[in-house]
Design goal:
Layout lengths: L10 E4 L3 H12 L4 E4 L3 H10 L1 E4 L5 E3 L2 E3 L8 E6 L6 H8 L3 E9 L5 H9 L4 E6 L2 E6 L2 E6 L3 E5 L6 H13 L4 E2 L3 H18 L6 H5 L5 H17 L21 H15 L8 H7 L7 H14 L5 H14 L7 H5 L5
The structure holds NADPH dihydro-nicotinamide-adenine-dinucleotide phosphate and ketopantoate (KPL).
Pathway: Cofactor biosynthesis; (R)-pantothenate biosynthesis; (R)-pantoate from 3-methyl-2-oxobutanoate: step 2/2
Protein name: 2-dehydropantoate 2-reductase
Keywords: NADP, Oxidoreductase, Pantothenate biosynthesis
Length: about 350
């Protein structure tokens, strides 16, 4: 571990795995002063010793980076990009809080509604929303697969002047030139929850995301999940946004089923062109053998649905089945996905 040497412009990336590592490598390559913070000591050592290797079809390069474990961080920072899994958000924010400048902010480069948790810990005015849909896998210490480009968006979580969001948008545009500065970041995050629920269902099997989405037999599972999430979003007065094949309008309560079929086919097509063939959820279960983000990302939709009197039976079943796999009671297989067929 090395103590971090910092200056006012240093950008902390807190959680330097698939997403944080990829962003950090691109920002560092562009000459930004980046410090990668991660709890995995071997990963930190490898990055400091050999640089951070980005592999895959988009671009392959090795970038010199500075990295540390959280204990090695010294000083306060204006910009912190958080990229831990959703169930680690609260702990990570508590650990980074002493290092956040009073006029600084945290950007959540995560899936889920982490912005709510972050704002509870550091205040809404210091929390900036972000949506990332590119695909990446942490392969081993110091090595990450960047599987495909996809939509990236950033925006304030309230109606405030987008000063911090504009700055993060400039940074994220270094990584993704088409990054969007939005005034509806919740729309993107709820769109991703709809897409994410469908991705969790694909992780019930061992097949790729695309092969799952191509299964006509399971279309109604994906359709019901999309519709339940969109119904909760509507009840919360959110206008969900689409991206990379996911069309929220196709899953609205009165939407034509053919529109949902087209959207599922578009998601299948989009995912045929990535080197990350399986979702991060599948990877947590099948490769990393660890808990997924199901409670923090998906069960919370059911909780918010119950508050708004929106029923979410398909989401409830999905959460149960993911827990069954996490706890070794079921295997990832078509048989497990079949259990979702009953309405
Ligand atoms: N990978 C992808 O393609 C995509 C991921 N996302 C989302 O991005 C977020 C990050 O996912 P991803 O990058 O894949 O996850 P990874 O597991 O690859 O990276 C997270 C890293 O953060 C570390 N970490 C955990 N807790 C802390 C902590 N308190 N302080 C510092 N580091 C910590 C993890 O260690 P350890 O492994 O020991 O927990 C891990 O090294 C998730 O919300 C995910 O859903 C969104 C779009 C695409
Ligand atoms: C599949 C992906 C990259 C979204 O496209 C994702 O969000 C995940 O793996 O969790």
């Amino acid at each position: 571990m090395q103590d971090s040497v910092t200056n006012q412009n240093t950008i902390l990336i807190w959680g330097a795995g698939a997403i944080g590592g990829t962003l950090g490598a691109y920002l560092a390559r562009a000459g930004e002063d980046v410090l990668l913070v991660d709890i995995v000591e071997q990963h930190v050592e490898a990055m400091n010793r050999d640089g951070l290797v980005i592999d895959g079809p988009v671009e392959a390069f090795t970038q010199r980076v500075r990295a540390t474990t959280p204990e090695g961080v010294r000083g306060q920072f204006k910009r912190i990009i958080l990229a831990v899994k959703a169930h680690h958000t609260r702990d990570a924010v508590r650990a980074l809080k002493p290092h956040l400048a009073k006029d600084g902010s945290v950007l959540s480069a995560q899936n889920g509604l982490n912005e709510i948790v972050i704002a509870e810990e550091i205040g809404q005015e210091r929390t900036v929303g972000c949506f990332v849909n590119f695909g990446a896998d942490w392969l081993e210490p110091g090595r990450i697969l960047f599987g495909n480009r996809a939509t990236v968006a950033v925006g304030e979580i309230s109606d405030s002047e987008p000063r911090a969001a504009r700055d993060y948008h400039r940074l994220l545009s270094i990584f993704e030139p088409d990054a969007v500065l939005t005034d509806n970041i919740w729309g993107y995050l709820w769109g991703k929850l709809g897409y994410g629920a469908i991705l969790f269902a694909t992780a019930l099997t061992n097949e790729s995301m695309s092969d799952n989405l191509a299964s006509q037999r399971h279309f109604q599972v994906f359709n019901r999940l999309g519709r339940e999430v969109m119904a909760v979003a509507l009840a919360r007065h959110v206008t969900p946004l689409g991206f990379n094949g996911f069309d929220p309008a196709a899953f609205m309560p009165d939407a034509d089923e053919n529109a949902a079929r087209r959207s599922v086919a578009d998601m299948e097509e989009f995912n045929r062109h990535t080197a990350k063939t399986h979702s991060g959820i599948w990877r947590d279960l099948a490769v990393r053998k660890r808990k997924t983000e199901v409670d923090a990302q998906i069960a919370i939709i059911a909780t918010l649905g119950a508050e708004a009197r929106v029923k979410t039976p398909t989401i409830d079943r999905l959460v149960e089945l993911i827990h069954d796999i996490e706890d070794g009671r079921r295997e990832q297989s078509w048989v497990t996905l079949d259990l979702m067929l009953q309405p």
